[in-house]
Amino acid sequence: MRFLGIDLGTASLKLAIVDEGGREIAFSNAAYTVSTRHPGWAETPVDEWWNALVAAASRLPANEREAVRGIGFSGQMHGVVLTDDEGRALRPAMLWPDTRARDLLDAWPSPQSNPVAPGMAGPLLRWIALNEPALHREARWAMQPKDWLRTKLGGELTTDPSDACATALAEPSGLWDDALIERLGLPRAWFPPLAPSYAVAGTLSADAARAIGLKAGIVLAVGAGDTPCAALGSGLCADGDALLTTGTGGQIVVMSHDAPEPVDGLHAYRAATDDWYRMAAMQNVGVALEAVRGWLAFDAWPRAYEDAFAAQPSERVTFLPYLSGERSPWMNPSARGGWLGLGLGDTRGTLMRAAFEGVAFSLRAGLDAIRASGADIGTMRLAGGGSINPRWRQLLADALKVELHAVDCPNAATRGAALLGGFALGHWHAGDLASLAPSTTLAATPNADASLEARHARFIDLYGRVRDWF
Q1: Cα separation, 136 vs 126, whole angstroms
Q2: Residue 39 and residue 81 in contact, taking contact as beta carbons nearer than 8 Å
Q3: Residue 264 maps to which CATH number?
Q4: Strand partners, 5
């Protein structure tokens, strides 16, 4: 018996098949692009997601696909797919890095239990209502990305609390906030009913099964957002368990059995289980480093790592990584980045090293906000494709002042999605969570570094000085 996890990410779709014990035995992926046809926009046509799924599925071993009995879903959070009554997308999907709605956030009452960001479904849909009125009239459903994909596969039209509570249109529990939706001028009928992430939401249709090479009738789980799926796949189940993920963005997640108290700049969302998590969400991690690598003309990441960590850290060159605004803890969609303190003698290695430090310091800002809320965090699990280099891991440990334990699970969100497929089928139950946790290895122990602390202080000071420039 096998279970398939589908992780619909920002820049790629990933598939993982796990066995009865939760071990990953097959993996594939397919990339697509994020369109930025106007400044501040971030979109992807949904056909690219479907084509990526078909391509990635074709690369999985046929015998493993044959054994799949349950499918779970993980998806990039906050964005939205606007569809007609048949589930056909009326426009490209609008994604979480999108900032076009940044001037519409004052429509939300203050304070909110969770921060509101421009790339959340609520602000994006309000932008649609004001700027694309014909689509506003024609639309029937406003879906989260993973929910659109599940319905494309034949699943029921529903969503889960982990995605709903991050739309800026629901209560922290995930229940739709009918009064807020009405106040914003959005149709309440757009928003699907709720079901737990581990619930059954239909079965794989015959047409979809032919397209991806699986059997028709396979159980489909509702699924969850990618961050709660990564937490599940990484083995977070006890109160206070903490995870750092580094990918396109970065997240620091701390599990909680009870609803966390609201804190400015931090999020408190529902997990893929019936628990909660506190989160600091930073937008500019892999996306900023990848931009810098391109600007500095490094043809491959190994050379970028080599030059960056061979360079002596500069005490005066600071990189602010806020290329697309920032969420935690600043909640400043207008923030922008760049190097400060450059001199004629600085090399591209110096600039690349400053970029790594700037991203680490931005993660530290999020973690410090969580610590200020009362959490005592000295150890964290580490996941995400952006944290595989040992020198980068060590810098993260030093900057964050935490011991990092790498999760033996390179595709945590995809594995978490697959586990949800097993829960939906009844193969696993809540009592199995601890035994399903993947093993970890000590990745880095923090070193005391006074010069790094001084550069961190300079980073925070410089952000404070320039934050109102844009």
Answers
A1: 9
A2: no
A3: 3.30.420.40
A4: 16, 72
- 415 φ/ψ angles, rounded to the nearest 5 degrees: -65, -40
* Residue 290 included in any domain: yes
Containing structural domain, residue 65 = 2-227
Query: Based on the domain organization, do 203 and 246 belong to the same domain?
Result: no
Q: How many CB atoms lie within 10 A of CB 256?
A: 18
Scanning the structure block, which residue is given the tokens 């680490």? Answer: 360
Q: What whole-number percentage of the chain has pLDDT above 70?
A: 100
Contact 191, 168 (CB under 8 A): no
Question: Two tokens at 82?
Answer: 């606007």
Name the helix (H) or strand (E) containing 393: helix 390-400
Give the count of beta carbons closer than 10 Å to the beta carbon of residue 310: 12
Tell me the β-bridge partners of 268: 278
What's the rounded Cα separation, in Å, for the pair 24 and 16? Answer: 7
Place of tokens 């996941």: 383
Strand partners, 382: 244, 406
In angstroms, rounded to a whole number, what is the distance separating the alpha carbons of residues 315 and 234?
A: 36
Domain final residue, candidates 227, 253, 273: 227
Torsion sign over Cα 288, 290, 294, 298 = positive
293 & 375 share domain: yes
Q: How confident is the model at residue 115 (pLDDT cuts 50, 70, 90)?
A: confident
Is the pLDDT at 463 greater than 80, yes or no? yes
Residue given tokens 């009326």 in the structure block = 90
What average pLDDT score do residues 407-414 get? 88
CA distance 405 to 437: 13
One domain for residues 177 and 294: no
Average pLDDT, whole number, for the chain? 94
Please report, as a single letter, which amino acid is at residue 301. Answer: W
Whether residues 74 and 175 share a domain: the answer is: yes
In the structure, what pLDDT confidence band is assigned to residue 292 with cuts at 50, 70 and 90?
very high
Q: Does the global pTM surpass 0.90?
A: no
Residue 307's identity, in one-letter code, is: D
Residue 429 lies in a domain: no
- Give the H/E segment covering residue 456: helix 450-466
Tokens of 402: 């935490």
The span from the CA of 412 to the CA of 235, in Å, is 9
CA distance 245 to 234: 10
Distance CA 105, CA 128 (A): 14
Q: Are 124 and 69 in contact (CB under 8 A)?
A: no
Q: Are residues 308 and 389 in the same domain?
A: yes
